Amino acid sequence: MAMRGPRLEFAVGAFLLLALASVLVLALASTNGKFGFGGDSYPLKARFSTIGQLRVSAPVKIGGVIVGQVSDVSLDPQKFDSIVTLSIDGKYKDLPADTSAGIFTAGLLGESYVGLSPGGDVETLKPGDEITLTQSAVDLMQLVGKYMFSGADKPAAPADAAAAPATTDVPSPEATTEPTR
Predict the structure, then answer these.
(1) Is the pLDDT of residue 41 over 70?
(2) Burial per residue of 49-76, b for 16 or more beta-carbon CB atoms within 10 angstroms, e otherwise
(3) Could you tell me the end-to-end alpha-carbon distance of the chain, in angstroms, rounded to an integer?
(4) Least crowded by CB within 10 Å, which of 8, 41, 62, 179?
């Protein structure tokens, strides 16, 4: 029969404390540095006709710096527009009222994010306000499909011919030369 000594009990206790500390570190790391309940953020809404691959918890950036995240995506049942709710960090509470929002993709196949471009208005957006200047996502696959199947190999369309400069009645050089004496 094996004896349980104080060293074995100490080793088991230390192992359990180490395991609990590891679980705590993993739990904190999974929150992306956002602790607590809700934190200091405020909601803004933006309406888009197409959101592409934008998902909840996608970043919201101003000039490439993350200032918030997408907290909800829903569909307006009357206008059939996508309504994206943005949770903006409270440090950026003075966004001008003419701020515009667009859905962009990081790289060719990267994640989608919402990019904000602050304007110059002295009025600021209040929590719950809607950003009215929006730019929908560009669906790259749809764009490639249109290019491939809409006749990219066809000759120039008549619209291109209309854009060509119109010919003017310029007299030929022979008609403008003076007769030699």
Answers:
(1) yes
(2) eebbebeeebbbbbeeeebbbbbeeeee
(3) 136
(4) 179
